[in-house]
Design brief:
This protein starts with a helix and ends with a helix. The chain has three helices and five strands; from the N terminus they run ααβββββα. Helix 2 packs parallel to helix 3. The chain has two domains: about 100 residues, no CATH class; about 90 residues. It is rod-shaped and about 170 Å long. It has about 210 residues and is mostly helical.
């Protein structure tokens, strides 16, 4: 951009002072106004682009000179990065015709500061919103994890109850089996006793008849 501005200002082509047929004004004056207007618009666009760069170690303009902004948006000192110098409607040229010095337009400086403040506010609001969303996400994850652990705990309790119920059923089966075995043994002993009594009775009767 700086090269383009210098080419526009230092164009070697000679221009004739030709009057416009309709207005009667000099074409050189018209071209000069157009060139100055183009330079003015380019300067404003450049300043707006520079003013937007306020995050990190970007370069901006404050008080008519390049500055470096820290993360806390405080001026640390003159920046090593060269910012192209553009002429605007308030520019002045030294007597030797080589050096250029810019006068800061107070309204433009105020607009730049307002843009910086708005950018800071927007960045702060975005960061606040991001933190709110992050907190909401963590709360949801905690709630889901808590429900999952609750379900696992219920499953463990149900499994324990089922195992206890199965154990009780097995105990009852063993008790019934033991009772059945004891009843069978009693019946068998009873049958043996009856058989022995009957045999004794028959033996006594046979002895009686022999006599």
């Amino acid at each position: 951009m700086k090269k383009w501005v210098e080419d526009m200002l230092d164009s070697p082509e000679p221009r004739e002072n030709v009057l416009d047929a309709e207005t009667g004004l000099s074409n050189l004056s018209t071209e000069k106004k157009e060139r100055e207007g183009a330079l003015r618009e380019a300067g404003l666009r450049h300043r707006e682009n520079v003013a937007r760069n306020i995050i990190g170690e970007r370069v901006t303009e404050i008080g008519g000179r390049p500055q470096r902004l820290s993360d806390e948006v405080t001026v640390e000192g003159k920046c090593d990065v060269q910012v192209p110098e553009l002429l605007n409607d308030d520019s002045e040229v030294h007597q030797n015709g080589q050096g250029k010095r810019q006068r800061r337009n107070p309204r433009h400086q105020q607009a730049v500061e307002q843009m910086l403040n708005e950018e800071m506010t927007n960045s702060s609001e975005l960061e606040t919103r991001r933190l709110e969303l992050e907190a909401h996400r963590l709360a949801k994850e905690f709630e889901i994890q808590e429900k999952r652990l609750g379900l696992q705990r219920q499953d463990l309790e149900l499994g324990r109850e089922e195992r206890q119920h199965s154990f009780r059923l097995e105990q009852q089966k063993l008790v019934r089996k033991q009772e059945n075995f004891q009843n069978e043994m009693r019946e068998q002993l009873k049958a043996i006793g009856v058989a022995m009594s009957s045999k004794k009775s028959m033996s006594s009767n046979s002895k009686y008849w022999r006599r």
